[in-house]
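Researcher: Let's continue the batch. This sequence belongs to WIT1/2 N-terminal helical bundle domain-containing protein, and it's 482 residues. Same format as the previous ones, please.
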Amino acid sequence: MEKKLHNSEESLMKFRERVLEVKAQSAKLPMAFSALILENWKDDKATELPASGQISNMDANSKRQTAEKQRNVLRMLEKSLKREMDMQKKISALEQNEEHLKLKLHYTEQLSFCMEEAAEVVWGRFLEAENASEVLMGISKEMVGRLQIFQFTLNGSIQREDELSSKLQDCIKQLDAKDTVIKKLESSIAEHIARSSQVPILTEKVKSLEEQLKKSELRLQNANALNAESQEHLSEMENLVESLKESIYEAETRAENAETKVTQLTDTNVELVEEINFLKGSRDSSTKKVTVLEKQLRESEIQLQHAKASSEASQEQQNMLYTAIWDMETLIDDLKSKVSKAESKTDGVEEQCIVLSESNMELNKEISFLRSRVNALEMCLDEANESKAAKAKEIIVRTELIMDTVMQLTRERERIQNQLFSLTRENEILAAKLRGASLTMFDNGHGGGGKLVASKNDSLSETCEKLFEEAMPLSKSLKTAG
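Model: Same format as before. Here are the C-alpha cells for WIT1/2 N-terminal helical bundle domain-containing protein:
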C-alpha cells in the first residue's frame, strides 16, 4: 500500500510538471501570434512600396496566409486546452485514488488494532484460566497428600491396637500359667505344713529367695527401662523415616511440577517462535512486538534452564534422601536386634523369677502386681479405643471436608469449562463479524485487503481453538483429581 501511494505521488508530480509546461506554452502562444501579425504587416508594407500595381493580389495572399495561420494557432490552442482538461481530469482522478487508498490504509490499521486488542484480551483470559487451574491442581494435590497421611496414621493406630490386644492375650496366658503354678504351690504348702519341723530352714531359704527375687526385680526393672528406651528410640527413628518419606514425596512432586513447567515452557517457546515468524512477515510497524516477543522467548528459555537445574537438584536431593533412609533402616535393624536381645534377657529374668517364687507370700505379691498390670493394660486399651474413636471421628470430619473441597473443585472446573466455551463462542462471533465487516468494506475492487483481514481472522480463530485444546487436558486432569 505504501509503495502504491509513493508511485501515485510520483505520477502526480510528473503530471503537475507537464501541466505547468503546457500552461507556459499556452501563455507563449499569444505572444507568438502577435509577433506573426506584426511580421505580416511589415511584409505587406514592404510589398506596397515596390509594386503598387500588384496591391490587390498581395492583399489577397496576405489575408489568406494570416487566416491559415490564425486557424493553425486556434487548432493548437484547442489541442492545448484539451490536453489541459485531460490533465486536470487525470489529476482529480489520481487525487481521488490517493484519498481512497488513504481511507483503505486507515481502515486496515483500525482493523489490525482491533484484532490485536481482541487477541490480547483472549490471551489474558486464557492466562487467568490457566493460573486458576494450576492453583486448583495444587490444592487438590495437597488434599490428596493429607488424605494419604490420615490413612497412614489410621493404619498405624490399627496396628498398635492389634499389638496391644496380642500383649493382653499374652498377659492372660501368663496369668493362667501362674494360676496353675499357684495351685501347685498350694499343694506344696500343704505338704510343707505337714512337714512343719523344717519351717526354720524353709524361712531361711525364703529370705534368701526374697533377696534373690529383689535382685531379679531390679534386673527386670533395668531391662524394662532399656526396653522402653529402645522402643522410644525406635519410635523416633520411625518418625524420622516417615518425615523422610514425606520429604521424598514433596521432592517428587517438585520434580513433576518442574517437568510440567519445562513442557509448558517448551510449548510457549514453540508458540512464541510461530508468532515471531508470523509477525516478521507483517508490516514494519510490528517490529517492536517482535522484539518484545523475542525478549519473552529469552526469558522463557532462562526459566526453562532454571527449571532443569531445579529438577536436577531435586533428583540429587532424592538420592541423598534415599541414602539417608537406607542408613536409618540399617539403624532400625540394629535397634531391633538390640531390643530382641533385651527381650530375651527379660525372658530369662522372668523365668528365674518364676523358678525363685516358691513361697506363698512372693506368689501373692506377684499375683497382685500382675493384676494391677492387667488393670493398667485395660486402662491403656480403653484409652487406645477412645483415641481410636476420636481419630475415626476426625478422619470422618476430614473426609467430609475433602469431599466438600472435591465438590468445590468440580464446580470450579465446570465454571472454567463454561468460561472457555463462552470465550470460544465469543471469538467465533467476533471472527464472523470481522469477516463480514471486511467483506462489506473491501468488496468493491479491493480483494487484497479483504484476504489479509480474512487470513487474520482465520489465524485468530485457530489460536482460540488451540487455547481451547490446551485447556481441555487441564479440565481432564481436574476430573481425575476430583
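Researcher: Any comment?
Model: The radius of gyration is 55 Å.
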